[in-house]
């Protein structure tokens, strides 16, 4: 009497005969479920599990390796869109520019800030609870026909953002890079609030100066050619001094300092499981400090 052979089927497709086993889980798999492996074939689930268990490559600063500078593209796009919005509706500049404290009279004119003012006047700026100005001003630029630079203001800023941003984002990864950019922009606005609360300021320069500081710190950490990097940094600082008569040096300096602090935390955090926590704590700590300084200044202005 002959014994009947057992028919084996694919574990994912029970109606399909199969005589090949997954080299990882030892289950039978059909041709549709086979994936090439170093030795033999693996099933779909084992391939996915293996991909999850593979450690993702990271930079010295903990960022994930990325191919395209997506965040830099998005930031440039937002700045350009905001600029187009200004051209269509110029009132957007007055509504969202960085302004710490100003009084608006019944005639619509702007007047110097004072804590006590007549009932027919009203406050404008951060002192009026418009806290969003601390960040929105960093995405606006001088209208094409105004100021010393006009349209060159956004053109120059976007060119520097394109050149610096791609380098910094590639090293930091998208999340760390975005945190650096926003904190640098915020740092510039806060220093404007602290020193020159009545100034009207716009532009991504504070954030870009933060990227400049990041570029210098990263080069030091990576052991790069500091001669060229130092020349770049000297030029950046020289521009900060020379442009002080026409631009907000407070915004530039604030962005530079904030960007330097954040990148120092990125660069010298322990290279173990504590790294992400230390880096996140540094960013949150700086954010809290900027918030406390802002609230303190507003409280002092409003009496």
Automatic annotation (TrEMBL):
Q: Which GO terms describe its molecular function?
A: serine-type endopeptidase activity
Key words of the record: Hydrolase, Membrane, Protease, Transmembrane, Transmembrane helix
Give the way it sits in the membrane. Answer: Multi-pass membrane protein
Tell me if Hydrolase is a UniProt keyword of this record.
Answer: yes
SUPFAM superfamilies from the UniProt entry:
Rhomboid-like
Q: Name one GO biological process term.
A: proteolysis
Q: Which GO terms describe its cellular component?
A: membrane
Q: Where in the cell is it found?
A: Membrane
UniProt keyword annotation of Protease present: yes
Residues in domain Peptidase S54 rhomboid?
129-265
Q: What are the boundaries of the signal sequence?
A: none
Reading the lineage from the top rank, the first entry is Bacteria
Q: Where are the transmembrane segments?
A: 65-85, 147-165, 177-195, 201-217, 229-246, 252-269, 276-296
Q: Give the family, as the similarity comment puts it.
A: Belongs to the peptidase S54 family.
Protein name per the record: Rhomboid family intramembrane serine protease
**Species name:** Streptomyces luteolifulvus
């Amino acid at each position: 009497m002959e014994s009947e052979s057992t028919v084996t089927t694919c574990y994912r497709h029970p109606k399909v005969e199969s005589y090949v086993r997954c080299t990882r889980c030892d289950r039978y798999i059909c041709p549709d479920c086979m994936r090439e492996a170093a030795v033999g074939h693996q099933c779909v689930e084992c391939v996915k599990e293996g991909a999850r268990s593979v450690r993702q490559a990271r930079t010295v600063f903990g960022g994930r390796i990325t191919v395209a500078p997506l965040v830099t593209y998005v930031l440039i796009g937002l700045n350009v869109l905001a600029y187009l919005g200004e051209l269509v509706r110029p009132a957007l500049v007055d509504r969202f520019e960085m302004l710490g404290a100003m009084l608006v009279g019944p005639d619509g004119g702007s007047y110097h800030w004072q804590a006590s003012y007549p009932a027919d006047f009203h406050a404008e700026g951060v002192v009026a609870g418009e806290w969003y100005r601390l960040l929105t001003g960093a995405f606006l630029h001088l209208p094409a026909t105004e100021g010393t630079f006009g349209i060159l203001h956004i053109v120059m800023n976007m060119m520097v953002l394109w050149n610096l941003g791609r380098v910094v984002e590639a090293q930091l990864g998208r999340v760390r890079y975005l945190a650096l950019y926003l904190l640098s922009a915020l740092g510039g606005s806060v220093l404007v609030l602290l020193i020159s609360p009545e100034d009207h300021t716009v532009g991504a320069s504070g954030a870009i100066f933060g990227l400049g500081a990041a570029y210098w710190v990263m080069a030091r950490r990576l052991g790069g050619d500091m001669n060229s990097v130092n020349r770049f940094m000297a030029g950046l600082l020289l521009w900060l001094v020379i442009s002080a008569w026409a631009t907000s040096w407070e915004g530039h300096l604030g962005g530079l300092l904030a960007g330097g602090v954040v990148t120092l935390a990125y660069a010298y955090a322990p290279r173990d499981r504590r790294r992400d926590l230390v880096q996140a704590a540094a960013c949150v700590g700086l954010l809290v400090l900027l918030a406390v300084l802002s609230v303190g200044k507003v409280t002092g202005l409003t009496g």
